């Protein structure tokens, strides 16, 4: 079956990609802040060099490591979306849908084609992750394998955890805590001496700060999944897919969505105790008013389509402002 590229792009579900981009951006900013180093060396003012110590403070940024982290995250997200497409399509869960295009259920691509696309996405993510592990730490190999398994098992396999209401928990962990803290850690690498100027990195990496930076990120990623699942309650009930939204019911699922947004705001208030300027991310929270109203309304199905897009915009705005806030902290 010859599937046009635009359908493959739509099948990758671009509106969910902020869940991959935001943790890398926030984590990179947090890691950059923790790479403060003292520049020292010697200068020549005559026939003899004069040592100077503590000339200044500098930061280290690895564009390559940040890029590789982004490729890993995007590959995992897109691969997970394709697995979701073919697995739900095989089970018949997506036969009646009001959300994004479904390749298998819509007879736009075969199961084999979509499974191959998922494997390619995971493969690209794996190659980028392997390079990152070689550059930073081999501990990233088992962590990466665990992330890939979590992406596959969301709706793939015999016992997908997305069908028993654990999707939000795993999204919070992997696209919040793990992705953010991991992106921060890959920036915390030693400097190499350049000529007669040497840089010594302060040997402290605050896991508490890195993980806490991932809390609002993970909560908003979970809210993105909740927006999707609240919209699909009706069809998921018919298909026997017991997401958290199905288990809670329409009204309580809406309340839980709003509570997640409130928790994200509260976590930003806590984060500002680590880095004061992180508080500016609260300026994006008014973007949560529209999706919150939809969540608390009596709307169902297609009427909730704007909720996912609005949540994605909120996630991007908070991520952008939080990234800026973390970069403003120190010179």
Tell me what you see in this structure.
The protein is built from 12 helices and 3 strands; from the N terminus they run ααββααααβαααααα. It is mainly α and 331 residues long. It has a 3-stranded antiparallel beta sheet, with no helix packed on it.
> In whole angstroms, how far apart are the ends?
55 Å
| Arithmetic mean pLDDT | 86
Question: Major sheet: size, sense and barrel closure?
Answer: 3 strands, antiparallel
Proportion of residues in extended strands:
5-15%
The Cα radius of gyration reads 22 Å
What strand order characterises the main sheet?
Answer: 2-1-3
Q: Treating each run of at least 4 consecutive H or I residues as one helix, how many helices?
A: 12
Keywords for this entry:
7% strand; 331 residues; three-stranded antiparallel beta sheet; 12 helices
In short:
This protein has 331 residues and is mainly alpha-helical. It has helices at 5-11, 18-33, 63-91, 111-135, 140-153, 167-185, 207-231, 233-239, 244-248, 250-271, 289-296, 305-328, and strands at residues 37-44, 49-58, 197-201. A hairpin with a 4-residue loop joins strand 1 (37-44) and strand 2.
Describe the protein's topology.
Blueprint: H1 5-11, H2 18-33, E1 37-44, E2 49-58, H3 63-91, H4 111-135, H5 140-153, H6 167-185, E3 197-201, H7 207-231, H8 233-239, H9 244-248, H10 250-271, H11 289-296, H12 305-328
Antiparallel strand pairs: 1-2, 1-3
Helix pairs in contact: 2-3, 2-6, 2-7, 2-12, 3-4, 3-5, 3-6, 4-5, 6-7, 7-10, 7-12, 10-11, 11-12
């Amino acid at each position: 079956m010859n599937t046009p590229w635009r359908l493959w792009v739509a099948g990758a579900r671009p509106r969910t990609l902020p869940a991959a981009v935001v943790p890398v951006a926030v984590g990179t900013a947090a890691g950059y802040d923790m790479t403060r180093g003292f520049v020292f060396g010697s200068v020549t003012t005559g026939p003899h060099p004069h040592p100077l110590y503590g000339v200044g403070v500098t930061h280290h940024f690895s564009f390559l490591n940040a890029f590789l982290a982004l490729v890993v995250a995007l590959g995992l997200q897109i691969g997970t979306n394709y697995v979701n497409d073919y697995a739900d399509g095989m089970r018949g869960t997506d036969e009646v849908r009001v959300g994004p295009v479904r390749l298998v259920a819509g007879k736009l691509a075969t199961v084999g084609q979509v499974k191959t696309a998922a494997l390619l996405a995971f493969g690209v993510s794996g190659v980028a992750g392997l390079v990152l592990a070689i550059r930073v730490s081999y501990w990233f190999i088992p962590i990466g394998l665990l992330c890939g398994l979590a992406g596959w098992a969301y709706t793939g396999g015999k016992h997908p955890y997305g069908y028993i209401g654990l999707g939000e928990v795993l999204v919070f962990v992997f696209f919040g805590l793990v992705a953010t803290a991991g992106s921060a850690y890959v920036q915390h690498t030693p400097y190499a001496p350049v000529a007669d100027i040497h840089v010594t990195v302060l040997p402290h990496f605050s896991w508490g700060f890195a993980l806490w930076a991932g809390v609002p990120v993970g909560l908003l990623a979970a809210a993105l999944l909740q927006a999707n699942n609240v919209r699909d309650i009706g069809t998921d009930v018919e298909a026997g897919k017991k997401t958290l939204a199905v288990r809670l019911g329409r009204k309580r699922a809406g309340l839980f969505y709003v509570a997640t947004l409130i928790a994200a705001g509260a976590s930003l208030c806590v984060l500002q105790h680590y880095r004061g300027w992180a508080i500016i991310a609260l300026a994006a929270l008014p973007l949560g008013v529209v999706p919150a109203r939809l969540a608390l309304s009596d709307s169902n199905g297609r009427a909730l389509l704007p909720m996912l897009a609005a949540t994605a915009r909120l996630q991007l705005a908070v991520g952008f402002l939080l990234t800026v806030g973390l970069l403003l902290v120190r010179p």
